[in-house]
Amino acid sequence: MADNGKKQIPLRVSAKLYDAIAAWAEDDFRSINGQIEYLLTECVRQRKKNGKYVSDQIDVPPELDIE
Where are the domains of the chain? Predict the structure, then answer.
């Protein structure tokens, strides 16, 4: 298996939540894993930090005014 820079994490969700995510993933033509990754990415993008939205590029560290 090639290392593509992604980390694996164990995730436990209820059967009801799994079914809802699976249905949503099917509607969006994604795998369940792809749908979870998409949703997490969107949540991180929309998270506010000091009144500003985080960068569209989540792999780029935010500029912090800590001085």
Answer: 15-53
